Amino acid sequence: MNDSSRQFDWNHVRAFLATAEEGSLSAAARKLRLTQPTLGRQVSALEDELGLLLFERVGRSLVLTRAGTELLDHVRAMGEAADRVALVASGQSQSIEGLIRITASDVTSAFVLPWALKQLRSEAPRLNIDIVASNDIRDLMRREADIAIRNVRPEQPDLIARLVQEASAHFYASTGYLDRMGRPQTPDDLANHDFIHYGDAEGMRDFLTPLGLPVTVENFRIGSNSGLVGWELARQGFGIVAMDEEVARMTPGMERILPELDPITFPVWLATHRELHTSRRIRLVFDLLADYLSQRG
Q: How far apart are CA 271 and CA 104, in angstroms?
């Protein structure tokens, strides 16, 4: 490794970094959108170029060797530098064409974004749009997405974030469920109803109890960490669920319960990387989404 003339392929370095971070070739291949054999060859090629063994297989996982661990910090620094170069280059692009990745929750991706994208397609028909439907906070710095729509404010200092909406949610159930189980007339009636959670029954109970709703974990017998699945479960008659009121209006057969209850309010943040905000195409999409989401409020 002291041979200053030794050179290696950046693709091989990127393959090593992804494998070290993901812990397996299959996960790293998915992250880089490569086939697993291709990724494996790139990692092996880097080991040959450096004359080092970088990974050892332990069960189904790959574990860094001592040499791999020592190399990892340097490679991460290279990856961050490469990301910054890509951000600067993308930020300087003034063309209203190319690929834009937008990440949002699955519910927002399915029910909210299509209406905004219709306007975007008419204003910039040469743009290619990739919707990353995810309830996780995606890393804009690593270019998993160019623009993020989230219900929590991103804290990274290199991001531009704008509060574009204070949305409201209420409780809904299907007409079939309410015909079968009865329509609650008071909050106390909810103790005898089924609720649908979004992946955390205890967390939902802890959120609803201070609102004066007499629910326990036993009320949450079914749920999903997918908002779309939770909403479909409610539509199919499995119980009561909280949902954005504008999404609920789009779904026939769903009734709002206890309309006198105060709405659940939540912020909607739009974020992008500071350097990407100088890109004409990303600025166009960012501003259009900001206008559309603000009008929804």
A: 11
